[in-house]
Amino acid sequence: MSLFPATLPSSTATPLRGGPTLNWGVLGPGGIADDFVTTLHANSDQRMLGVGSRSQERADAFAARHGIPGSYGSYRALVDDPTIDIVYVSAPHSEHRDLAMLAIAAGKHVLVEKPIALSAAEAREIAAAANAAGVFAMEALWTRFLPQSTVIRQLLDDGVLGEVRLITAELGFRFDFGAEHRLYNPALGGGALLDLGVYPVWFSHFALGVPDAVHASGSLGSTGVDVQAALTLEYPDGAQALAVATMTANTRNGATISGTLARVEVEPMFITPAGFTLHGSDGERLDWRDDHGHGFWRDGLAWQAAAVAQHVSDGLTEAPEHPLAMSIAMLETIDAARTQLGYPPR
After folding, report:
1. What does the mean pLDDT of the chain come to?
2. What sections of the chain are H helices per DSSP?
3. Nearest to residue 22, comparing CAs of 298, 304, 320?
């Protein structure tokens, strides 16, 4: 029996304007922090009030660039600022756990860039600390909060796709080799899986849940980090997910959810504001496009910030859309894959 809808559901994404606001601080004034603050100020009511860095000069330059009133030459000084409600951790992966714990210990809510930590064990430490402190904590898996993801979630929950049988998701960009580049430097948590693979792994968990088994193949580069990885995730009913990440080539960067009644094809780049097509088994088709007018790529980072502000206002300490248990489960999947690729256990 076909459940193909006459129209697609409306987005349930938290509105970017008109809702609760937080006073934000950022630790680690790098590239993604630049993009986060830019879209925060341009497309939402949220405001960044402070920036902390190990370099006062870098903090001052970042603050001047974005009109941020507070500038600190240490991470601790930022988290000790009483005007800051929530800390956005955007430093390299290797610092996520320690900076999240620093902010939590200061009584701040935290939004930690993906991956939330280098391993599931580290993620559990963050979750336990946030729970004990009673503060909000979330991994900055921004794609989950985009309007398109809220519509796809409804299609899955309503059974429009039938039984989900196969997920495919790929994310790949070619990065020139540099031994000190964060993506190639093992000391900074480099590698395709932790940086890019988080997204296809998330998409698989989003649609099918936690897998029973993980099978990984791939290759390690000269610095010892994975430069390419392909994961097959197995589920008890025979469903599968294929998650691919590479730093060696520019891939299509699309994603598909195929069910017994219909499939969803998410346009490249599936991690950004884009669109998707719902295909029925009898040739039906419905297209969804993001018409919110906030551009492409990292402009979409604002959606997660608005959602976090709403959740904090509602008294929540986790995001129902992306709870800490999911972040931990995703890292368990990546831990298993990295072990199979030859990494020592963490």
Report:
1. 95
2. 31-43, 56-66, 75-79, 96-105, 120-133, 147-157, 192, 198-208, 301-313, 324-341
3. 304
Q: Tell me how far the alpha carbon of residue 171 is from its chain's centroid.
A: 13
Give 3-29 pLDDT, tens digit per residue: 899 999 999 999 999 999 999 999 999
pLDDT tens-digit series, residues 148-188: 999 999 999 999 999 999 999 999 999 999 888 889 999 99
Instruction: Tell me the β-bridge partners of 215.
Output: 232
Bond from prior residue into 15 cis (ω within 30 degrees of 0)? no
At 100 the three-state DSSP class reads helix
The pLDDT assigned to 274 comes to 86
| Percentage of the chain modeled with pLDDT above 90 | 92
Parallel, antiparallel, or unpaired: how do β-strands 262-266 and 275-280 relate?
A: antiparallel
pLDDT at 293 exceeding the cut of 70: no
Q: How far is CA 38 from the centre of its chain?
A: 18
How far apart (Å, rounded) are the C-alpha atoms in residues 207 and 210?
9
Q: How far apart are CA 209 and CA 325, in angstroms?
A: 11
Show Cβ contacts of residue 82 under 8 Å, excluding neighbours closer than 6 positions.
none
Could you tell me how far CA 23 lies from the centroid of its own chain?
Answer: 21
Residues near 145 by beta carbon (within 8 Å), at least 6 away in sequence: 13, 14, 303, 304, 306, 307, 321, 322
The one-letter amino acid at 14: T
